[in-house]
Design a protein that fits this description.
Blueprint (H helix, E strand, L loop, with lengths): L2 H17 L6 H11 L13 H13 L2 H22 L6 E3 L1 H4 L8 E5 L4 H10 L7 E5 L10 E8 L1 E8 L13 H15 L4 H8 L6 H12 L16 H15 L4 H9 L11 H9 L5 H8 L1 H10 L4 H5 L3 H13 L10 H17 L1
Parallel strand pairs: 2-5
Antiparallel strand pairs: 1-2, 3-4, 4-5
Helix pairs in contact: 1-2, 1-3, 4-7, 8-17, 9-17, 10-11, 10-16, 11-13, 11-17, 14-16
């Protein structure tokens, strides 16, 4: 292998190591790549530069850039929609990256609000739980500023977000903006393109005895939306909502490994967080109606009352008399205990395959 071919081979191998996260910096990746190609000691002049390795990284990731960009755009739009729904009374509009992409490193959400009081918007966000990095920025008009006072509110919800409030906001025909309704339509149209199950999930879907294929696919999409959604760090120190849901599923499986309906309640109890952060419980029940059994829906719907029971010992007489009372309390216990940072959990696809296999096993009995 001549010097030029060796240099290119090292650059390609180092790029693969970086893309696959086997190494985290260019220098160690380059050294490891050279050794993997049989060269323990190579003059620095014969090794590729960082720029050459970076070009190979771009070449490799470029094969998947379109799919990755669609997924990233969907994710930032969902994050923007969470905030916009909280501010629905102020008629927010999304612009910038959320409106037309692309989603690059450091991308942020930009929302425009007209005729809104900054303090009222700030308090609405604070009361809705958007406390992290929430701050206001005010600019008063001067002789060189013909636009007037501009108020900006900054927060962080999976992405940095800047909310611009301006009573005399100039129309700009070249600026693309999307309302809540328009952004929701975009997400609904793209969700099936982004969330595609793995081959193992697809094989389970094809099993004539498996869980309803449309339901299983819907579960996959709804649960994927929980990825990256952070809850209150005091009550949920474990991480994002998807990781929590998988913890609850794992704890439920240790108690009721045979109970498909109970395990679905464990796995799906928080999906409303990915639909409507202002009223996640109602969103959960609405999304699952028609997809799960009455028992699963009952457990998910009455989970808050079960948590109150664990704290106070109080619960309505009708729930205590329910045949599902013990299951409801167990679900609340799993939900309470599934908040431990760093524990091992199954992959989402593994959990769904388990559900599908349980359904098939009962059909075979």
């Amino acid at each position: 292998m001549n010097d030029r071919c060796f240099r290119e081979a090292v650059a390609e191998e180092a790029a693969r190591l970086l893309v696959r996260r086997k190494e985290t910096d260019f220098y160690t990746a380059r050294k490891r790549a050279a050794r993997a190609l049989g060269q323990k000691r190579t003059p620095a002049a014969d090794l590729p530069t960082i720029g050459e390795i970076r070009e190979q990284v771009y070449a490799i990731t470029g094969l998947y850039a379109e799919d990755r960009q669609r997924a990233a755009l969907m994710e930032i739009r969902q994050a923007a929609l969470d905030i916009m729904r909280t501010l629905i009374e102020f008629e927010p509009k999304a612009t910038g990256t959320v409106a037309d992409g692309p989603v690059l490193r450091g991308a942020e959400i930009t929302l425009l609000l007209r005729f809104a009081d900054a303090d009222e918007v700030f308090n609405t966000l604070r009361d809705a739980g958007f406390r992290q990095q929430l701050r206001q920025e005010r600019h008063d008009a001067d002789e060189n500023n013909t636009v007037g006072r501009v108020n900006r509110i900054h927060l962080h919800h999976r992405y940095p977000c800047e909310i611009i409030l301006q009573n005399d906001l100039n129309d700009n025909q070249s600026t693309i903006t999307w309302s809540i309704e328009e952004l929701n339509v975009l997400l609904q149209e793209s969700v099936t393109e982004i969330a595609e199950p793995s081959l193992e999930i697809k094989q389970s879907l094809e099993d004539e005895h498996a869980t309803d294929p449309e339901a299983l696919h819907a579960f996959f999409i709804l649960l994927q939306r929980l990825n990256g959604i952070r809850q209150d760090r005091v009550s949920h120190p474990e991480g994002d909502a998807l990781y929590h849901s998988l913890q609850v599923f794992e704890l439920g499986a240790q108690q009721r490994s045979y109970d498909e309906e109970f395990l679905l309640a464990c796995l799906l109890h928080d999906i409303g967080l990915g639909i409507d952060r202002r009223n996640p419980r109602q969103a959960t029940v609405s999304a699952l109606s028609g997809l799960v059994t009455e028992r699963t829906l009952f457990l998910v719907e009455h989970l808050p009352e079960a948590h109150d029971y664990l704290r106070t010992g109080q619960m309505s007489r009708s729930l205590k008399k329910s045949e599902h009372f013990a299951d409801l309390v167990l679900l609340a216990q799993c939900d309470r205990d599934g908040r431990v940072p760093g524990v091992d959990v199954p992959e989402l696809e593994e959990a769904l395959v388990t559900i599908a296999e349980l359904h098939s096993a009962w059909d075979d009995c």
